[in-house]
Amino acid sequence: MEWGWVVKGLIIYAAAAFTLRIIADALFIARRNADAQAEAEARRAEDSANPPRGAAGQGAFRPADTIPTAERL
Question: Quick check: 54 and 60 in contact, CB under 8 A?
Fold first, then answer.
């Protein structure tokens, strides 16, 4: 009985399974990254809509280069 075709078939099967696993992992990672990016954007939008307040009810600390000139004077 010839076993060469069985071995070749098993090698092809293993290669196909390995390739499909790599593709599935890549799709899973891409979806997870997209979900994380969407969540970060939503959090950023929420934070900009509700900025933190300082002790005296003023806006949170901002570096001088982000404060408009009229406010600095």
Answer: yes
**Residue pair 61/54 in contact by the 8 Å Cβ criterion:** yes
Report the predicted TM-score, pTM, of the whole model to 2 decimal places.
0.52
Alpha carbon distance 47, 59 (integer Å): 13
With beta carbons less than 8 A apart as the criterion, state whether 59 and 67 touch.
no
Q: What is the pLDDT of residue 44?
A: 85
Mean pLDDT of 30-34: 94
Contacts of 61 (CB under 8 A, 6+ apart): 54
Q: What's the whole-number mean pLDDT along residues 9-38?
A: 95
